[in-house]
Design a protein that fits this description.
By secondary structure, the chain is α+β, with helices and mostly antiparallel strands. Helix content is 25%, strand content 15%. It has a two-stranded parallel sheet with strand order 1-2.
């Protein structure tokens, strides 16, 4: 779950995240990422407050 806009969270290593999580899911309360990019990365992405962004 992302609830900050800190720079360290803006460009994480999504491949490493996928390797470490049993089910790669991100709940993004700050809308830091583009839904299409998350889908291509193979990460289930839920952008809180952005319509049509849950994949």
């Amino acid at each position: 779950m992302i609830v900050t806009e800190w720079k360290v969270f803006r460009s994480p290593d999504f491949e490493q995240i996928k390797r470490r999580l049993k089910t790669p899911v991100i709940f993004d309360g700050r809308n830091l990422y583009e839904p299409e990019a998350m889908a291509q990365a193979g990460v289930e992405y839920h952008a809180i407050g952005r319509s049509g962004a849950n994949r």
